[in-house]
Automatic annotation (TrEMBL):
Database matches in InterPro entries: DHS-like_NAD/FAD-binding_dom (IPR029035), NAD-dep_sirtuin_deacylases (IPR050134), Sirtuin (IPR003000), Sirtuin_cat_small_dom_sf (IPR026591), Ssirtuin_cat_dom (IPR026590)
Entries under PROSITE patterns matching the protein: SIRTUIN
Record-level Gene Ontology MF annotations: NAD-dependent protein lysine deacetylase activity
EC number: 2.3.1.286
Stored Pfam families: SIR2 (PF02146)
Protein name: protein acetyllysine N-acetyltransferase
Length: 244
């Protein structure tokens, strides 16, 4: 076994509480795009001359609801499945390890793998809600109007996924729990994220524990944070190696 993998395993074994802070790079091995990378959503949307920051924003939803809900799905899009990162973390938790996931992803793959402690900073799309009356709907049961915009039958409000769009704030409760989780952890694993956006940057500085591990394809900005172990590589492949 690679000495870095051995070290990561040792850190996990020794820590009572492990905080796993993950970003888009955790799900790329499940076939989901990382819009900051060349092969991500950005290139997929180039034909439309809009970048995902513009499209996946509060402003765009309000001003162009029809376009927002009628984005062309990628042709070869398949239902994403948990990869080795999601699976091995969930297995560790099931085996009794206190692994607390904080994710910037909205794909729900940690839960799909069976993980119980998951804080979703940017929400999820398991439930949708009416922007007028806050009634909650399952995505498959939402009725659509003639423009294919999901509508609440009661107030005619737009029904939207429970995800945090650009220009919107994360749920305060989730944010508070994330701060608490990071400040209690003995080991912090930062994986598949560039840490360039808030609240990620502020959150990780709550850490008061022993060791910080970074798993990423490229170097990230960890100013003011002492990194004990840096693993350059894919997150799923790293956890697969731990499990061997
Ligand atoms: Zn409503």
């Amino acid at each position: 076994m690679d000495s870095k993998i051995t070290q990561l395993k040792k850190y996990i074994d020794e820590a009572e509480i492990v905080a796993f802070f993950g970003g888009a790079g955790v799900s790329t091995e499940s076939g989901l795009p990382d819009y900051r990378s060349r092969k991500g959503l950005y290139t997929e949307m180039e034909g439309q001359k809009l970048n995902p920051q513009e499209v996946m924003s509060h402003k765009y939803l309000i001003e162009h609801p029809q376009a927002f809900f009628n984005r062309r799905p990628k042709k070869d899009r398949v239902e994403p499945e948990p990869n080795d990162a999601h699976k091995v973390l969930a297995q560790m938790e099931q085996a009794g390890k206190d692994i607390r996931v904080i994710t910037q992803n909205v794909d729900g793959l940690h839960q799909k793998a069976g993980h119980r402690f998951v804080l979703e900073l940017h929400g999820h799309s398991r439930t949708w809600y009416c922007m007028e009356c806050s009634r909650v709907y399952k995505p498959e049961e939402v009725e659509k109007d003639e423009q294919n915009i999901p509508r609440c039958p009661i107030e005619q409000g737009i029904v939207r996924p429970n995800i945090v769009l650009f220009g919107e704030n994360p749920d305060r409760g989730i944010l508070e729990k994330s701060k608490e989780t990071i400040s209690k952890a003995e080991l912090l694993i930062i994986a598949g994220t560039s840490l360039t956006v808030n609240p990620a940057k502020n959150l990780i500085h709550r850490f008061k524990g022993k060791h910080v591990v970074v798993i990423n394809n490229e170097e990230i900005d960890t100013r003011n944070l002492k990194v004990d172990l840096y693993i350059e590589g894919k997150v799923g492949a790293t956890f697969k190696a731990i499990n061997k």
